[in-house]
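Could you help me review a protein record that somebody else here produced? What it holds is a sequence and that sequence's fold in token form. I have pasted the whole thing underneath without changing anything:
=====
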Amino acid sequence: MKSCAEPTGCGEPISINFGVLGRTTVNSKCCSTELCNTQNVPAYTNNTPNSHKCFTCDKEDCTKTMNCLGPEDRCIKSFVTAGDQTIVIKGCATSNVCDLKPPKEILNTIGMELNCFERNLCNNAKRAVQNLFLLLVSLIPITLFPGHSDTALCTA
């Protein structure tokens, strides 16, 4: 596909990886003069596992973990609504998927919500309840030993 685009994030690979449900990648090359996009761009092929891990779903079981690939450095959790049914999908993505507003707006128009998390395994289904518990537990060391807490919370 060839088109015009905003220069933000130009040339950075985009990857959304839902594990067994599939991975979508976009590789781009940018130029700044008229009709300069005549070259073909090779497919994005970085499939090397990195150190980032996220939850993924296999049918209705969303407790399995996966290794993120290439530059995927975010855990994602998506809710897809079709009619009166909502499905949860989890996986990995590159940070530029999470940072750009237009993709989120487009996803919302097709009934899809996307949440991104920086830390490993932070796209768990029990995030809200678990975060409240972790917050309460993390306050104990801060209260008893100010400045000596290593507890990290998952934040969107």
